[in-house]
Amino acid sequence: MTSELPTPALLNPSQAGDKTAITNLRRLTVLRALALSAYIGVSLWLADALSGGALVFVLLGVITTLVSVWRARGSVAVGRAEFFGHLLMDWLWLPPLLAFSGGAANPFVTYLLVPLTIAAATQPRLYAWLMAAISIAIYTALMIFFPGVDGGHSGHTAPDMPAASSEFYRHLIGMWATFTFSALLIAGFVNSMAEALRRRDRHLHKLRQEQARRDQVLSLGTLAAGTAHELASPLQTIGLLVEELQAQRDRDNDIDEQDLALLQQQVGLCKQALEQLKSRARDPEGRDEFQPVAKFLERSLERWQLLRPDARFALVQQGPATLEARLPLTLEQTLINLLNNALDASLAAGKKAPVDIKALWNGERLSVEIADSGAGLNVGSLEPTGFGIGLILSKTALAQLGGRLTLKARERLSGTVAIIELPLATKPREILLS
Fold first, then answer.
1. Cβ neighbour number for residue 87 with a 10 Å cutoff
2. Angle, helices 13-47/113-122, rounded to nearest 10 degrees
3. What per-residue confidence (pLDDT) applies to 216?
4. How far is CA 239 from the centre of its chain?
5. Model's pTM, two decimal places?
6. What is the DSSP pairing of strand 416-423 with strand 313-318?
7. Which of 70, 94, 254, 271 is deepest in the core (most CB within 10 A)?
């Protein structure tokens, strides 16, 4: 298919996701640097020094921060799994650091919720629940092995444990229960709300794309209306000249009758196209009469061959020959646009193979596949980045009729296949017969 006119530039959702991941990674590094700075400052203020073991893991935290800073400055996109890996790097230094500096009694233990909150807000549900399980497991291990109170290695109170230590250990048990509830709440509700926001963003992106196409089609429609008025007078003049040439042919045998007939035919087609444009303007909703689907396809192909005398096609059709449906003029124009694109793509590739057409219909749907022999079109994504004018109008017209137009690579051959899918409004008796 040809690509003549690019659509308005809109940010691809995947590209937007990559940029958001890099931005979130930068925020994570800033947050990690602030947490380490706060820990060092509070430790020096309260204890005047850091223990040797704690210092080692503080340095490890600094190293992970520098790694994230280096990665965030790169130009390569950051995927979800990689960003989750950067979140997991906090578990390399944070749990041992807490174990060496008060265990579960260290107020800094609440920072365990930070990586979980980030994962719940930015990652899929699986990653959020995995991070919640890791956070709860780490807190539970600190409560069992490093509770931060003397003699408190379990939920039972030792006989010789001081009353103050026993009460504080019960307080730690309450903190653990609160932490577990908070972790489950964040993994469940925060992640659900974040996913709802992401769905809304994707929906808004789709609406912006549709609005951009509508605006472009509106501008093309305005241009078509102006062009129709401009073409009316020249076509009338050309028609008069052709009639005069035909009248003079008896006196001048140098004028070729076939050329005059062809010229008259092409002028007639131009006038017919303008009349159809006027008819569509008077009936914008396209309330067309019922007509046989097979006859409609035959008439559309005949008109296409009149417009493109050099066109050749191979048609395969399957469906009830007597089935009648409402088939608007916009569908005929859509078929001709796609056939022109297919023929142009084949000729541009230096191939004169016929355009392959496969039409299937029943009482509910019509499917038409148009395959060219061109160089092909990059259809790696479901939303191609560029369309020709004919494709823009065709896709919009089909969307208004409740159908759709999709493009895919041709199997085992070079070229592209344009697929039209359209629901049919048939007569009730025809639906019963089919």
1. 22
2. 170
3. 64
4. 49
5. 0.51
6. unpaired
7. 94
Computed from CA positions of residues 303, 306, 310, 312, in that sequence, does the dihedral angle turn out positive or negative?
positive
- Give the Cα separation of 103 and 252 in Å (integer): 110
Count of helices and strands (H, E) across the chain: 13, 9
Element (H, E) at 111: none
Whether 366 contacts 190, CB under 8 Å: no
Q: Which helix (H) or strand (E) holds 266?
A: helix 257-282
Residue recorded with tokens 């794309």:
209
Q: Show the tokens assigned to 139.
A: 């807190």
Task: Work out the average pLDDT over 28-42.
Answer: 88
Nearest to 360 by CA among 424, 415, 406, 304: 424
Distance, in Å, from the CA atom of 127 to the CA atom of 80, rounded to the nearest integer, reads 9
**In one letter, which amino acid is 131?**
M
**Tens-place pLDDT, residues 53-79:** 788 888 998 999 999 889 888 777 888
Contacts of 375 (CB under 8 A, 6+ apart): 345, 348, 349, 414, 415
Counted residue by residue, the chain has a size of 434
Judge whether 355 and 308 are in contact, CB under 8 Å: no
Contact 194, 118 (CB under 8 A): no
**pLDDT value at residue 322:** 86
The token duo for 85 is 């890996």
Nearest Cα to Cα of residue 391 among 4, 111, 96: 4
Q: Within 13 Å, how many C-alpha atoms sit on residue 329's CB side?
A: 17
Integer distance in angstroms from the first to the last C-alpha of the chain? Answer: 35
* Residue at token pair 């807490």: 98
Whether residue 127 contacts residue 168, with contact meaning beta carbons closer than 8 Å, is answered with: no
Q: Considering only CA atoms, which of 333, 316, 320, 317 is closest in space to residue 392?
A: 333
